[in-house]
Structures are given as C-alpha cells and as structure tokens.
C-alpha cells in the first residue's frame, strides 16, 4: 500500500472518534430560557416566570441562573425572591442574594462592552421527586424599584448524574 494512503487510513478513524467525542461534550441542558428585563430596569411588578417539565426523577440536576447586567449596575448584589411551584400545586418561597461583585467591587463573571454576565448555581444537586410541570418565578427584592442596569436572566437545567 502506498505510504500516503496508509497515513490517511490511520488518521480517518482517529479524526472521526475525536469528532464524536467532542460533539458529545456540549451543554446537555434539558431546559434553557432567557427572559429580558423591560428597558434594562427591573421593577417589582416585572416578574420572570420560567416554566419547565421534568420527566426523569432518577437523575440529579444542576439549576443555573445567568444574570446579565450593565457594568454601571449600582450594587454589589441583587436580592431576588424565588417562588417554586411543583406539579402537585405546592409553592415554596425563598429570598436569595445574588452576589454580582466581590468585596473589592470587582464584577464576578465575564464583562465585555456594555454588559456583564455571571452564571450562578441556584441548586447544584437538585432532585425532583415528581414528574410534571414546574415553574420558577423570580421577583426583584431590593429596597428600591426599579433597579436600573439589570438586562436579562436565563435559567438553565442540566442532568449531572443519577440518584
């Protein structure tokens, strides 16, 4: 066999296996939705409602929240109230401080141009005990309204293992 042809035969399976390996390493989100904040200024009445369905209760999930804000945002954190509605109708509430900057005032996450984006783990090992439709509603929970500089939020859910 010609040396050039032999080289192609050896590299072809290697390249194909690399392609399949790396294409399988993408973000395996079962849910991903980005909701804009009207006029980049979050008021009390501007709730963000994420609605998703869970069909596999044997998995452990990561719930991630992407927060996009302007570099001129005036606070180190952003307080939100989270309302979680379960398929059985039960609702739970929780107040959470989203830490957008460190103690020195440097933004967490990535900033470029007119926006900064930070991925915040809401729940790193979430277990859903029942299948069905869930909703996660976020309300701005700061001392003033509206809060200028908040652009949008995205909820992402991905399986990370089995129970």
What does this structure look like?
With 163 residues, the chain is mainly beta. It is built from one helix and eleven strands, in the order αβββββββββββ. The protein has one domain (28-162): Jelly Rolls. It has one helix at 3-23; strands at 31-36, 41-42, 48-54, 59-69, 77-85, 91-99, 110-112, 115-127, 132-140, 147-148, 150-162. The chain has a five-stranded antiparallel beta sheet with strand order 1-11-4-8-7, with no helix packed on it. It has a four-stranded antiparallel beta sheet with strand order 3-9-5-6, with no helix packed on it. Strands 2-10 form a two-stranded antiparallel ribbon.
Quick structural summary:
This protein has 163 residues and is mostly beta strands.
Alpha-beta classification: mainly beta
Helix coverage percent of residues?
A: 10-25%
Low-confidence stretches: 5-24
Q: Mind telling me the C-alpha Rg?
A: 21 Å
For this structure, what is the CATH class? Mainly Beta
CATH fold node name: Jelly Rolls
CATH A-level architecture: Sandwich
Query: What's the number of domains?
Result: 1
Task: Report, as a whole number of angstroms, the end-to-end distance.
Answer: 52 Å
Total helices: the number is: 1
Average pLDDT over all residues: 88
Strand order of the biggest β-sheet:
1-11-4-8-7
- Number of E-type strands: 11
In percent terms, what proportion of residues is strand?
over 45%
Tell the overall outline: globular
Largest sheet: 5 strands, antiparallel
Order of helices and strands: HEEEEEEEEEEE
